[in-house]
Write a structure and sequence with these properties.
Layout lengths: L1 H14 L5 H12 L4 H8 L5 H40 L18 H15 L3 E2 L5 E3 H4 L26 E3 L5 H9 L4 E10 L10 E11 L4 H16 L6 E8 L2 E14 L2 E4 L4 E11 L1 H6 L8 E8 H9 L12 H7 L16
Parallel strand pairs: 1-4
Antiparallel strand pairs: 2-3, 4-5, 5-10, 6-7, 7-8, 7-9, 9-10
Helix pairs in contact: 1-4, 5-10
Bound molecules: phenylalanine (PHE).
The site of phenylalanine has 10 residues, from strand 9 and strand 10.
């Protein structure tokens, strides 16, 4: 009897000390291993005089439980200490500077589209989108472009099927049709996006970008068109004054139609927009043809308005001094690094468009 009390006292003292996990495991074996001190006491039970046996067994059980609890607590204590030490060591200092990483750049065309959207949204235009793959009806027929029109020639248009019903849109004008079929007038939208024509040289790429503009309401006239484009060009090139010229032109979907040139000059080898006596064509526009309005169930005797289509890549080249259009689509990382924009520098009219 006193044996097991002694074991208990000895080992309780031991377990109160600072112990390593190995030391605790050692104690566990000493007590509860096959020939451990407590295990062998259990084997002894049979040899205890019957009169004491019950009490002995119950004391032994209690001591066994107490020692096992102390061991479990000790192991817990050591493990949580380990975890805390680890957490302490692995603390992250969020005030440390970032490791160097390469931040991507915004492509000048994307930047230009954001700038254009920002400028037009200031005067009440919302942004619409249409698919690159169009049907012949939206791209031509609904836009009052008859079957025999030269623009339909295979040479310009990428058709996707033999019947020439599906194609890559040759301009953003089909978004006019989609918008007017979808909603009721008035309309005041722009639609930037990709366009495709079978053409490739220094100033033409088979894939290029346009932004369509459409404003239809009850009293819209050519004066509004002029005012709108004048405002846009000045904002876009960030100049006070701009020389603009409307040249009579022809588009099947507008009447009258015009192409717009802006004045420029080359000063010390640099292109200066808005002055000088040279002219650069940047967009096509006009008053929406009554046939187009009829095709989308808008009554031309009540509603009329203007549309325009601006070449985005051209504008980006002029503004950012890029002289070969093909560089836009080469995916040359060094070029993008030089001409690209900071992704966090989103253009807005208030903060400045292109700092
Ligand atoms: N869609 C014409 C083009 O691609 C541009 C345009 C748009 C002209 C809207 C007039 C009105 O050349």
């Amino acid at each position: 009897m006193s044996d097991i009390k002694n074991i208990k006292n000895d080992y309780s003292t031991k377990l109160n000390k600072n112990l390593s996990l190995e030391e605790i495991n050692q104690i566990k074996t000493e007590l509860f291993g096959k020939n451990g001190l407590i295990s062998s006491q259990f084997k002894n039970i049979g040899s205890i005089p019957e009169i004491d046996r019950k009490k002995f067994a119950s004391d032994l059980n209690q001591i066994k439980n107490e020692l096992q609890n102390s061991i479990a607590n000790k192991i817990n204590e050591i493990e949580s200490k380990k975890i805390n030490e680890k957490l302490e060591k692995e603390k992250i200092d969020v005030t440390l500077p970032e490791r160097s990483f390469v931040r991507g750049k915004i492509h000048p065309v994307s930047q230009t589209i954001d700038e254009i959207s920002s400028i037009f949204s200031e005067i009440g235009f919302s942004v619409e989108e249409g698919p690159d793959i169009e049907n012949e009806y939206n791209n031509f027929t609904a836009l009052n472009t008859p079957d025999n029109h030269p623009a339909r020639d295979m040479h310009d248009t990428f058709y996707l099927d033999e019947n020439k019903e599906i194609l890559l849109r040759t301009h953003t004008s089909p978004v006019q049709i989609r918008t007017m079929l979808k909603d009721k007038p008035p309309f005041k939208i722009i639609a930037p996006g990709r366009t495709y024509r079978s053409d490739s040289d220094q100033t033409h790429a088979p894939m290029f970008h346009q932004v369509e503009g459409l404003h239809i309401d009850k009293d819209i006239n050519m004066g509004h068109l002029k005012g709108c484009l004048n405002y846009f060009i000045k904002e876009f090139f960030e100049v006070e004054k701009i020389k603009m010229r409307f040249r009579p032109s022809h588009f099947p979907f507008t009447e009258p139609s015009a192409e717009v040139d802006i004045g420029y000059e080359i000063k010390d080898g640099k292109l200066v927009i808005g002055e000088g006596d040279q002219w650069l064509e940047i967009l096509g526009c006009g008053m929406v043809h009554p046939n187009v309005l009829k095709n989308v169930k808008v009554d031309p005797s009540k509603y009329q308005g203007y549309a325009f289509g601006i070449g985005i890549d051209r504008l980006a080249m002029l503004k950012y001094g890029i002289n070969d259009l093909r560089a836009f689509f080469d995916c040359d990382y060094r070029w993008l690094n030089h001409f690209g924009f900071d992704p966090l520098d989103v253009p807005t009219n208030y903060r400045g468009l292109s700092r």
